[in-house]
Structure formats: C-alpha cells, structure tokens
Design brief:
458 residues, 25 helices
Length: 458
C-alpha cells in the first residue's frame, strides 16, 4: 500500500479556525504547532512539522508541551514560511511566497489553494481564498498587539496622523468587496469610535478638525452600510443621520449628498418612499465638480425612482449618470466612496436592475448579461444580488430555463455570505418560480431555498 504523503502547508480551513487565528495573534507558537498537528491532516506529526519549520523534533515537542516559548522573530518567520501561514497572522510583513508571481499569474499561495481539491469548482475555491485573505487582513488591520504603540496615542494630532488614519480606513473599506456587513461592521464601528475619541479629547487647527469630521462622516457611512447589509436597519439609520450631520458640519457637501443617497436606498429597500432624499442628492449631483460623485448620485437616484414606479424619471437620471461618465476628470480626484461606481459596468448593473423592477426585460436582460460577464465571482455577495435581478428579468421574458440556471448560480455564490440581502432577495425570486414548478429544474431549485446565514451563526 502506498504511503500517504502529508501536505506541505496548512489548509485554509485550519488557517481560519478562530482558535488558530488567536494563537497566531498571541504569538503562542506552542498552541500554533499543537493545532497544526490536530487539524493539519494525516501525517502532520512532530517530525513533519520539524522538517517544514527547520527545527528538531525535540524542539517542536518543547514548544507544543509548553516547556519553552518562542520569542525571536526569525522563528515565527520560519514557521510562517514552512507552513504557509500568512505573515499578517503573526504581525509580520507579507512573506515572499505571498507576493510571488509566476509568469504574471496568480500568487503561489492562491495557486496552492486552487489546486488543493481535485473536485472543487475553481471559481468557488478562488472566491473562498479571497475571502480568507480579506478576513486575515481584517485581523491584521484592527488588532493591536500587546506592547505595540497606538498610531494615534497622545494629544498632538497633525496631518501625518490624519493621513495614517485615512490610509488604514481605506484598507478596511476594501473588505466590503469580499465580506458581508455582519463580518465588517465591527471593524468600521471600531474606526468610527476611534475617530470620535480623537475629536473629543484633542485640540488641533481648524483645518485638521474639518478633515477629521470629514473622515468621521465617511466612517459613519461605511459602518451604516455594513449595518444595512447585515439587516440591522435602526442602527444603519442612526449612522446615516450621524454621517449627514458630520458632513454638513465639515462643509463637505458631496459627502452629505451621499448620506442622502444612502437614506433613499435604505428607504426603498424597506418598502418606503425614498424619492425626497434622492431629489436632494440629485441637487448635489447637479452642483458637484467631480464626475464620479455626479454619476454615483444619479445611479442611486435612478434606483429610487424605479422602485417608485416612475419609468420616465428613471430613464432621465440614468441618462444623466451616463453623461457624467463621459465628462473629463478635473483637478480634484474622485473620493474612494464614489470612484468605485464610475464605470460602465456599474452603470449597466444599475440600469438592468431598474428596468427589471419596472418590468422591462428587453432592456434589463442585455444590460445585466453584459455586466455579469465582466463581474468577478470573488465579489460573491454583490454578484449574487445582481444575478437575482437577471433571473427575475428572465422570468418576465418567459425564459424559465435560463432563470433557473442564473438563480442556481446566485445561490452558490451567496451560500456563506454574512449578509441578509442576498438571502432576502433570492427568497423573493424563488417565490416567483411557484407558477412554474412543472418546468425542468424548478422543483430542485425551490428545494434549495437558503437559510439565513445570520440566524445560523447566532
């Protein structure tokens, strides 16, 4: 019988176990190696760990049994490299194998994950790896290690500290691309509380205060979005209101307009009329000098008007959003909260969603099909949502077989997303299949109605 060779590196399932992440964060090498032996799989013995981490077997056993405790950085570097533990978990810089590229392709660690399952769907494995990376990044970005100074300690706040706060928030903001609001809310809320504490307990020049208020407003919007995505609507409403007031106090008209756009989006998602708030954001859009802000506000307003059943106004503001895409970029760069939507794909998605709810499938389907062909599966929450509207448009067009296929794909993508929105949306789409239970694939699809992931985790 052939001898089974143990894996060289720890799997994503081990790296994401809470107890393993905590052991790494505490730099408790004994616990790290003990958990690696326990969960690493067949062959993960002390001798295997010793070979991978360039130690003697007796030294591994000393760590595991608590007889000695690792202190030197080079020891953690050897373990990280030998088992492919991302450097962020040990509060190290990214390891060479994390950033290595092979002929311009995927990173070595990504390739390892993609090939670890003979029967796995490559797109699903890649999406899961991106989520793993985002989660590890969140741990590194938000967890202060004992003995490490806070970047905002003291009472003197200047432009360099402000830049540091902004840079950290920008990195955290990117987590929203891959994680649901129930997972990201605590990170955004933590940054919001930190900035609030600085505003309350420090004195600084008027310009620094204005910039801090602007940052506070942005953080409140991001935390509000995460709360909305998680289904915590009262909390989201409060944060949007806080953001609006802070942006007004800072004189940040565009940011205040974005708070209005968020309010409108939340209102229509709850079955309320959000057109008044959208009217306000459109007024800001007409005055702004930043095309990305203008396009974003008109896109979000289009959704509000579509949900209100106003096809004429929807078409009008979609046209204004498209026009904004063609405007030259001026001297003021687009803020991060608006730049993401300033492209043709995002506009196609919004247009397709609007025409779907207005029951115009001949307009909706081409826009959504084109956009989804270019939209990566790693954005699992958002793509699942957008596919739900494409499925509805197919139902309206009488293309039930295509609707079944698209809904199945959306269910796959949303299977473990910590967001209430895909579950709620897909539940509504599945309801629309009820008259077609005799059609091929429909009964099997209906049997896949998802549980709410937030309820399962609670």
């Amino acid at each position: 019988m052939a001898r089974h060779r143990p894996a060289d590196h720890l799997s994503a399932q081990v790296l994401t176990r809470p107890e393993f992440v905590e052991a790494c964060a505490q730099r408790d090498l004994g616990a790290v190696l003990r958990l690696a032996k326990q969960w690493g799989g067949v062959g993960f013995s002390s001798s295997h760990l010793a070979r991978r981490c360039e130690m003697t077997v007796s030294r591994v056993q000393d760590y595991v049994n608590g007889r000695i405790r690792a202190q030197r950085v080079e020891v953690f570097e050897r373990v990280a490299d030998g088992l492919h533990i991302p450097g962020a978990l040990f509060n190290l810089a990214p390891r060479p194998w994390e950033t290595a590229r092979s002929n311009g392709g995927a990173s070595v660690v990504a390739t390892t994950e993609l090939t670890s399952s003979e029967n796995g769907d490559t797109s699903v494995l890649r999406r899961d790896f991106v989520k793993l990376g985002a989660g590890l990044a969140a741990t590194a970005l938000t967890g202060n290690r004992s003995g490490m100074p806070s970047p905002v300690s003291g009472t003197r706040i200047g432009s360099s500290t402000l830049a540091e706060l902004r840079a950290k928030f920008a990195r955290l903001r990117s987590l929203d691309d891959h994680l649901g609001g129930a997972e990201t809310y605590r990170f955004y809320a933590g940054e919001l509380q930190r900035t609030a504490g600085i505003l309350k307990s420090n004195s600084f020049p008027m310009e620094i205060q204005r910039e801090l208020l602007t940052l506070f407003a942005e953080q409140a919007q991001q935390a509000g979005w995460a709360a909305f995505d998680a289904g915590w609507q009262p909390k989201a409403s409060q944060l949007y209101e806080t953001s609006y007031n802070a942006a007004k106090q800072a004189g940040a008209a565009d940011l205040a307009g974005n708070a209005l756009a968020y309010r409108a989006y939340q209102a229509v998602s709850g079955g309320l009329d959000g057109t008044k708030a959208s009217d306000g954001s459109c007024e800001v859009a007409a005055r702004t000098e930043i095309p990305a802000v203008e396009s974003l506000f008109y896109q979000r307003a289009a959704w509000t008007y579509a949900m209100a059943g106003d096809a004429e106004r929807t078409g009008e503001v979609l046209g204004l959003a498209e026009e904004a895409l063609t405007k030259p970029v001026g001297g003021t760069p687009a803020p991060a909260w608006a730049a993401w939507a300033h492209n043709a794909v995002e506009l196609q998605i919004m247009a397709g969603r609007c025409w779907t709810v207005l029951r115009r499938p001949l307009r909706a389907v081409p826009a959504l099909e084109t956009a989804m062909a270019q939209y990566d599966d790693t954005h699992s929450r958002d793509k699942a949502l957008y596919l739900s509207w494409l499925a509805e448009a197919y139902i309206d067009a009488g293309e039930i077989e295509r609707a079944v296929q698209v809904t199945g794909k959306a269910l796959d993508l949303s299977a473990d997303v910590a967001s209430s929105r895909p579950t709620e949306r897909l539940g509504l789409v599945l309801d629309r299949f009820a008259p077609y239970e005799s059609e091929s694939g429909v009964s099997d699809l209906l049997a896949r109605r998802p549980l709410n992931p937030l309820q399962v985790r609670s």
